[in-house]
Amino acid sequence: MRYDQPTQSVYELVEDNDDQDRHPDWQRRGQGAGDRFVFPGWDENGDFGADFNQNNVDIIRPNLNPDWEEPFLRYHVDRPRFLFGVDMNNNGYIDRFENDDEPDYPYKRDRRRYNVYVGADLGPFARLSIGRQDERQLADDRRNETNYLLLTYERDFATAGRVQVFDNLRRARDDIEDDIFIWRIADGIAGELHERADPLPARNAWANTFYVRHDFSPAGMNLQSKLKYEFFHQLDDTPSTSAPPIRRTASFFGMVNKLAYSVPLAGVTVEPRWKSEFQRLVPSLLDDPLDQPTTELTESAFLIAHFPLLSRTTIQFGLEYLWTKQFRKSVESTLEGSPRKELVTAVQVANQSPYPGYVVFTQFGFRVARIDIDVLAAPQTETFIFFTVYAGFGN
Q: Any idea where the domains of the chain sit in the sequence?
């Protein structure tokens, strides 16, 4: 028995299936390859597909680019890093988005723990919770002792829209390694799952995550703003000999603003859109191959127009201009962090027709993009032609 070869010699009675689909996430003897597409917590609409990759519908030639990297789709989709969530294992990633290769037990093997908290409503819109988590690793001298405070505020204003505010303050001593897999886009190519070792950013630290979101939808307009600030501040200057070195203060600041407006003009619906995305990342690890310090601004302008051609046929035109600016010189020379400009045009024809017992949706069109990346010698031109047919139930 070779316990260091789990693919051949180890079999679990409880599967690792973080995305709750028909395919186990890991690879084990006699069951073929593992699940390449694991998106725990990323299917909130319940359609058995990642909410961040809604156009991945081809099993033979899957689309591995997230929607936040694709033209026109990027307006509606924000990176998971910009979203709020608790991080009880203090590994720098929201728990609801984590994917690992462990069986889905209520608590991980080799752990003993408790988590106790109390909470109270602060009026009809706010709630405050205070708790303590104590976790011990049985086979090693490692612990996770975290005292935390969580404040939530959610309110709908009749004339100002919906406001959400979250703040999660933590005092943690955590040296238990909780490694995960992440979906990463490397140097502009299609993404894949990569193993991500826990950097242990809360070995002896204060940590805080602050998040605010505002949604406002007056007549014909949609305005959305998000802001997130998170930091890990170490209190112990003594470096650990058993863990990689980390920065004394790691932080992330992100801000997203979106504006869309719909204007009907002589039978044509015109929708100008604008999206601004700013992020400043200082990762915990001093030398992290998956996360480098970055300060980046991305501006996107869209112009969408659609009109009915026949009773069941619609034509859509789209124009998008993307501009990115990198403020850190050390990242400007990489393909992933280089400043870039994109000009994209697209045409799509959509048809909906009844078929006995079904409704058939047909879409076809083309897209042309001119991409100018500073580190490349010449601009690139990309063309994309698509034809898709869906059959479903409907009226």
A: 84-291, 293-395
